[in-house]
Amino acid sequence: MHNELPSILLNAAADEFAKLPGIGKKTALRLVLHLLKQPVADVEKFGNSFIKLRNEIKHCKICNNLSDNDICEICSNSRRNKSIICVVESIRDVLSIEQTQQYSGLYHVLGGIISPMAGVAPSDLNVDLLVQRIKNENIKEILFALNTTMEGETTCYYLYKKISMLNIEITTLARGVNFGDELEYTDELTLGRSILNRQPFIK
Amino acid sequence: MHNELPSILLNAAADEFAKLPGIGKKTALRLVLHLLKQPVADVEKFGNSFIKLRNEIKHCKICNNLSDNDICEICSNSRRNKSIICVVESIRDVLSIEQTQQYSGLYHVLGGIISPMAGVAPSDLNVDLLVQRIKNENIKEILFALNTTMEGETTCYYLYKKISMLNIEITTLARGVNFGDELEYTDELTLGRSILNRQPFIK
Fold this sequence. Notes:
The structure is a homodimer. The first copy, chain A, is α/β, with parallel strands linked by helices. Chain A is 41% helix and 12% strand.
């Protein structure tokens, strides 16, 4: 379709949108035509926001979270519990956990999980920094909050091997039936585990 | 959700995406995190493509179509039939009609249709230019290709009033049952019209 666009500029802009995940060529064209209707200043703000972000964003030197500064807001927040580190795959997981408002400790963003299929080896992850943090700071607990996929489990196991001798408590997110789930449609593994790990009923 | 993002830059970029039609805050964040993984040069190309487009795109001085030059590719193409003008609402309609490969004439892009609800008055449309073209050039036929909505019909009627005395043929797209439609689910108006305008059966 784009080859038939009457303008090289239009083509180029639509192609840029279409490179984004989940955006097809028709949507890309719709978005470009929308931008064309906006004031020049707004479109400049739009385009420059991504360039500025890409050029200026930093990774927190402590936890590898995205940050405007060398040290992220969480690591530099004196009210956070500095004795527990929650290990996550990506910044998106940090956001999800922060939204629950149930966690007040620190994070460690691995930047991926071990995945031979995707070509991610243990050396690609931010593991040495984690081991250093445990050794140098007064960390009492490491909470694994990785996806419960094959890759997540593999990564947990690898990390466990790396830090189990460091004499800290190692925990993982509770597994069980989701709130709102119908048992009939819950997978066997989850249901089986949630029976084994059954909890006292709270009235 | 965005208020909890750990970075002002990230917030700003995600907000820019979320301003686009059909892009929610979650998708916006996903797109921004995708951009963050791309090389700086690619992100600069991405952002600048929209700014360049917005600053440099022109409207064809003849038909009001979008164009890189003063005169668009269609108007300057010597192989197009210069005696017929197809009147459309927007550039998107030009693209749809071009895709059918059934039309080889010129276009006239109104830039909207009359819509009191949306605050579009006849004076907002590119009508004077159309009248001028009919008067000054050797135009034999005007084909109305506007949406078959109340606004489209109103606009057709308004245009008809403006050009009917100019002694040219005025046509409109055939109305009828869509290819692939089941009669049971075709609306009464369309079905009724397609009976009135029934065509010779071609074996």
